[in-house]
Amino acid sequence: MTLTTTQPQFRLVRWRGGQHPTLDAITRLMRDEQLRPYVWVNAPNSRHPVRSHGYDKTIYCVQGSIEIILPDARQRVVLGPGDRIDLPRGMRYGAVVGPTGAQCVEGSPA
Questions:
Q1: Helix H segments across 22-100?
Q2: What sign results for the dihedral spanned by CA atoms 79, 63, 18, 34?
Q3: Is the separation of the CB atoms in 102 and 65 below 8 Å?
Q4: Structural domains in the chain?
Q5: Between the N and C ends of the chain, which has fewer C-beta atoms within 10 Å?
Q6: pTM across the whole model
Q7: In terms of Cα–Cα distance, which of 22, 51, 14 is closest to 39?
């Protein structure tokens, strides 16, 4: 007998175009998707330990940059202004804020 485990998959959406979306535009978009947006700001080089949640989470970078570390997928993803990552429930992740700090909006289903 062979056991197969499937790793939850994240979705990354890179901002394409001229000026990146504003905080107002991102929060409006998230509300349209039935997500509850929450804005936060972190100082340069802040670190967040690996953790997971019992719900799906969407993170948009508004200003600065943040590196999302996905240890189980053995990947690292840097989000810049306008970039979005969707993390499924239970996916473990950590984060390191970029050298100029970061303003992000995260949301979960309402």
A1: 23-32
A2: positive
A3: yes
A4: 11-109 (2.60.120.10)
A5: N
A6: 0.90
A7: 22
Residue 31 CB contacts under 8 Å (≥ 6 apart), including other chains: 37
Residue 89's SS3 state is coil
Write the pLDDT tens digit of every residue in 33-73. Answer: 999 999 999 999 999 999 999 999 999 999 999 999 999 99
Find residue 52's DSSP bridge partners: none
Find the DSSP H helices in 13-105: 23-32
Query: What is the token pair recorded at 70?
Result: 């996905």
Which residues are bridge partners to 102 per DSSP? 42, 64
List alpha helices for the chain, DSSP H.
Answer: 23-32
Torsional class of 46: left (φ above 0), alpha (ψ -120 to 50), beta (otherwise): beta
Report whether 86 contacts 108 (CB < 8 A).
Answer: no
Phi/psi at 9 (5° precision): -105, 140
